[in-house]
Design brief:
heterodimer; A: alpha+beta; 6-stranded mixed β-sheet; 5-stranded mixed β-sheet; 17 helices; B: globular
Amino acid sequence: MTHQQQRYAELFAAEAREHLAELSSSLVELDKQPGNRSLLDSVFRSVHTIKGMAAAMGYEVVTRLSHNAESVLAELRENRRQVDSATIDLLLEAFDQLGGAVEATVAGVEPPDPAVTIERLVLWRRAGERAAAAAAPDTSITAPLEKSAPKHRPKDPGRLRVDVRKLDALMNLTGELTILRGRLLALTADHSSEPLQEAMEQASRLIAELQLQVIESRMEPVSELFDRFPRLVRDAARTAGKEVELSISGRDLELDRTLLNAIADPLVHLLRNAVDHGIEPPAEREGSGKPPAGRIGLAARRERSRVVIEVTDDGRGINLETVAEKAHGAGMIEADAKPQDLELFRILSRPGFSTADSVTTLSGRGVGLNVVEECVKALGGSVELTTDRNVGTRLRLELPATLAIVRALIVEVAGQVYALPTTFTRESFELPGPAVERAHGREWVNWRGSRLPLTRLRPLFAAGKNSDNRDDGAMSRDCDDHVLRVVALEFGATRTAISVDKFVGEEEVVIKPFDLPRGAIPAFSGATVRPDGRPALVIDVGSLAQRISTLNL
Amino acid sequence: MSRTVLIVDDAIFMRTMIADILKGAGFEIVGEASSGVEAVQRYRELKPDLVTMDIVMPDMGGIDAVREIVKEDPKARILMCSAMGQQGLVVEAIQAGARDFVVKPFQPSRVLEAVQRLLG
């Protein structure tokens, strides 16, 4: 492929995907408003554009599929046929095929055979011709007075498509610049030269502004993701024989592209759960005085520097007693413990925990929530579940708006400085050495009424070093065992404690991803440079917790 | 002096492809537009020697845009870019004042031929 062909192929992929995403959400909307003319027009235009581009690229399967779908849409536009649910289903099937064909073609593999779908599209048109021949066409057309089609994101000529790797490189450079700024500030702090101070201050402001702009250039509206969900919910509801209305708010909120990709799967899980296990069948709903169609809400909003995404349903809620019973049966909680909502989530999200055999028919919910929690935690976020019997369930995901900057506890271990993201730290405290217990072949500390396994980081982190490390001697002098500096960590369902040599403070750090040298301990997610110019490794609490459990248990 | 062109299409993909063909032949792309409304505005500002015009677009289709542009500048030289199966629309566009048309997928030679003829 020549460079130019490569560039066309990339443009095609990006633009076709954009249209496909819009297609499925517009179509679901059209199902609700079959007379909405501008929605129909917008669907037609998208298919038409895909066809034109595919033909120009010589992508035969994509061209044929979109051409046949376009013919069906043309008949609808010319009012020769009315939009009905069967037609919507047919078009959804065609767009699925189309999406598959686009992805396959872009990936350079043979697309799946579209013959069956094309045959159906052709049959649909023949059926129309026969009907038209048999009877005079119905000229009464439903007045299209509904609200207009979803707003096209303006594709103004001022918008550029940029390879995300270039943005990553830019982000990386800006990160280094920010770090350098910290260093310069520290170096010049003692100088009394006023012009120098002024210049430094100005440079500092500009760098901060630059960083903000670069971070923003990586942001995309959540609608890129959310607009896929009406279709998903519709399909899930059909399969489950339920009626569901999905309302979405906060589509314009912007999130880092990486985060947006990462939360797609968790949200799919949560929405499916809400349809399958939250919303009751129509008859049951009417029995308890609710409207037959269940309501699922998906909302995104900003709270301070965090982004909150909520999935709510007005279904049957979760039976707390059943959960508590099961949890007790599985030895997860004491017999008399009353799990509150917060803990409830923790219990539900234990791998393998499910109330499938109970009256609440929450089958599969356990595994799903486990995946959701792990994913959200790995992003530095948190999940919270609240539920009300017969009123509904609310899942609240709190996420950072960007992954590039985190708040971290700065600690020292074996003469090196490390950053510990505070997302996972529960508390740091000092403990007299003798307070450490020994049992089951390991050390334990008491923290707020529970016993946490203790792992001393010094031997762990020093293990990879040469035995002649000069820090070793200094360490044993500096950090006596009379006082232990402990950090209580929580990662998913894992609670553990680590001890460090020294607490340095808490700072916002700019994380730069890095490749670990071979043989290194896989417990770091990146590096940052401290204001004094010394590098610090950012501890990846997830893999550290995992490593600790394999080391000790 | 090289001839100036305004490219109108709602797909960036298509605009890029047309621009590449024309640039390769020494034309100067002075502007792009992604809807009919925008095309009319840009034409007014830029007074290009030539316009390539897509037919199916949001916010006023290509044929209406041709009518608007020709109303303001009867000498406007507009080349319609249509997809397969739009013969009827092409005829309408020509009646509205477009000078010629090419059919997607483009043969670069066919596009250049049409453009040269239009400007010749």
